[in-house]
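$ run holo --ligand "glutamine" --emit tokens
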Amino acid sequence: MDKILVIDFGGQYNQLIARRIRELGVYAEIKPYDKITVAQIKSEGYIGVVFTGGPNSVYDEKSPHYDPEILSQGVPILGICYGHQLITFMAGGKVVSAGASGEYGKIPVYVEKDILFDGVPEKSVCWMSHNDYVGEVPSGFTVTARTDKCPVAAFKDEKRKIYGVQFHPEVTHTEYGKTVLKNFVFGVCGAKADWKIGNFVEESIEKYRAKLSGKKVLLALSGGVDSSVAAALLSRAIGKDLVCVFVDHGLLRKNEGDFVEETFRGKFDMNLIRVNAEDRFLSKLKGVTEPEKKRKIIGEEFIRVFEEEAKKIGKVDYLVQGTIYPDIVESGRGDASTIKSHHNVGGLPDVIDFREIIEPLRYLFKDEVRAAGEKLGLPRELVWRQPFPGPGLAVRIIGEVTKEKLDTLRDADAIFREELEKAKVNSNQYFAVFTDTKSVGVMGDARTYGVTIALRAVTTDDFMTADWTRIPFDVLEKASGRITGEVKGVNRVVYDITSKPPATVEWE
Ligand code: GLN
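-- output --
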């Protein structure tokens, strides 16, 4: 399989670069600049290298640099922003401070005819974010793009197959960004589009079948997307040799625990143990009102329950974790095969006796994990579900968590979701919140003193920022009417109209 290496110099969009390349059907990996040598790049057979952007200036004392040997290896290079400036520095050109000529945001760019700009019009919009620029082009290089303020918006040394762009092709604001990446990957590097999730799934099944058949393999199933896909994959590989412990903490949405159980019992061959631990979690959460404390208690209790079940099973050979690629990149591991304790539910059980950790999804981005889940036959509803916090509904109940509040919230939440889905409202995440505020109402001519439920729905690309969804009033009316009418104890419904920032999507 052809592989492109993304060398990370601390850019904000490093993952985006790799994702875009993979969307083109070519496998891309990210490594921090100090975790991979030129010799490794050669021996591991990368067919092209991308230098990412980064916050530094190339002449800063602490700025990250790279071995200039890379320039003469015949491996194609694309430098982006800081990467473009770093190539300049390494090849003997000059980088200067742009001063007032820094460019931030959408900027018109003028390109020359070039392999990198095949299919890009002479003038288009690109996205820039830089304080420095290339003032003097290194020898052997020619300028291939300009903006009104930036004299070297792109350059190339065709002989050595080295390219640099000052703008960011990986962000969607660059109109022809994807074309530029495509031209680099296919035109310059000559890659084949052979990264297909279906192949990954098939190869993984074969690999784990060979490695793990006849062994005892243990997995903690939370019902989240990652652990569910890992479970599906290993079940296809080794069937009943896989033991999944599904810890139902009682903080899931309405019918969700049963749905997870039915899915895995119905469609997958595995040893599934469901632990209904609602009472345990609720007694640990008794009297706790502080959000961070709730999160911590739930994370720890999850591990304890899992450990107890594992001890009943006895010695296992392998422990499976649903770690995915962003977990690895963000924890700075870079080397995806290093085994280190990372767990999406907060810590690794230490009393379980096992030989090795298996992380079958450690090379996949979230979208790819979902696509793999679909290939494996998991229902769309599970695979494409909205982000759901690990501590579940406990952080959607303000104040102390009780069984009664959970049941009220579950019912209100289910009605709200049903109404939005029926009306086909376009929203990326939506749910109900138990506000822990009581107010006076009147129902059937009698005074009530009941619970206030808040509804939350957001529209967002990436969850870093979010806007509240403009739900049509008649849909809100229907949801509100049904919640006060059908859910006992609720006499008021409010809609949250704050964006993120200043608020967050979740209330706790
Ligand atoms: N720090 C460099 C500059 O300001 C590069 C910025 C970037 O990579 N986005 O020009």
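-- notes --
Residues 334-346 have pLDDT under 50 and may be disordered.
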